[in-house]
Amino acid sequence: MSTELPFGVRRVPCCPPGWQAVSARFGHSVRVSAELSRPWDLVAIAAATISTATVIAYLLIMRAQEGTPVWWFLGGLVIAMALLGYGARREAPRRRLALTLAGTDLLGLGILGLLSIGFPLLCAGAMALISARRE
């Protein structure tokens, strides 16, 4: 019982868990990790979630201290979150570029805010760069 895919490729269901065997038209077989067959990149989504939580924490901290948030810092975070949201879709064109820009943005903002809220941004930036590299 195999499933027919485009270009004469068929999926064979008798594989170890986590792997899908793909038989090509010319008899070549390719192993594809189940993680890479998902349409969404969970690492990029996790980086966007960390960035969103950091923005919320930053705004709450600024409100508690009765201060004014630095708008260019928030703007950089919003741009990074938009790029991460775009790059989370595996079929998106220029996905690697978007994730690399988001990772670089988050690393820069994380270094600037290292003494307050920078550490989660450094982690999210590293995750975005890892996601861009794993294509």
Q: How much is the average pLDDT?
A: 82
- Helix count from the secondary structure assignment: 4
The structural domain count equals 2
Low-confidence stretches: 19-24
- The amount of beta strand, in percent, is 5-15%
Q: Report the end-to-end length measured between terminal Cα atoms.
A: 30 Å
Structural class: alpha+beta
Count of strand segments: 4
Largest sheet: 4 strands, antiparallel
Radius of gyration over all CA atoms, rounded: 20 Å
Please give the order of strands in the largest beta sheet. 1-2-3-4
Overall 3D form: elongated
Note the run of SSEs as H and E.
Answer: EEEEHHHH
Percentage of residues assigned to helices? 40-55%
Textual characterization of the structure:
By secondary structure, the chain is an alpha+beta fold. It folds into two domains: 3-33, no CATH class; 42-133. 55% of the residues lie in helices and 11% in strands. It is built from four helices and four strands, in the order E-E-E-E-H-H-H-H. The chain has a four-stranded antiparallel beta sheet with strand order 1-2-3-4, with no helix packed on it. Helix 1 packs antiparallel against helix 2, helix 1 runs antiparallel to helix 4 (118-133) and helix 3 runs antiparallel to helix 4. The longest helix has 23 residues, at 42-64.
